[in-house]
What does this fold into?
Amino acid sequence: MASTSDFKNGLCIEFNGDLFVIVEFQHVKPGKGPAFVRTKLKNLKTGKVIPNTFTAGVKINTQRIERRQYQYLYSEGDTYHFMNAETFEQTFFDKKLISAPAFLKEGDNVDVLYHAETEMPINCDMPAYVELKVTYTEPGERGNTATNTFKDATLETGAVVKVPLFINTGERIKVDTRSGEYSERVK
It folds into this structure.
């Protein structure tokens, strides 16, 4: 058990029967009335960020979360197979646990968050950026590089992203896995 004085960014707590991580907090002591703590909490299962206010000194249950390194092997439908980087045990996770499954490539390393008491996987975090090869895109026309227009490009994982007109088939690009958008061309 902890109190609001123990709040810090990244602390995992149990709130309303779910696991939440404190994204942001602020202790407020108004001139009139009791002190309180204004927070933004991120639900570990759904990813939604909600605001909440706690009265100062209220007791909360802190939870221990472990981050384990896994390597992606292959997928069968909505089941994704991974290998633990330390023990080499193979396990599988459902597609809904993975933050951006469309950008997973065989051999990629991911971090899987586990609830320490129950040994249940909570979330599978991809790296912020991944480098992927463009397998198909329409050829760009000469002189069309100054405008801010985009075209569709199919990547080696099968995902389709919008890229600038100067990107051609066979080039490697960096994709932001959080938003699913093109970031830059890799040389």
The two ends are 51 Å apart (CA to CA).
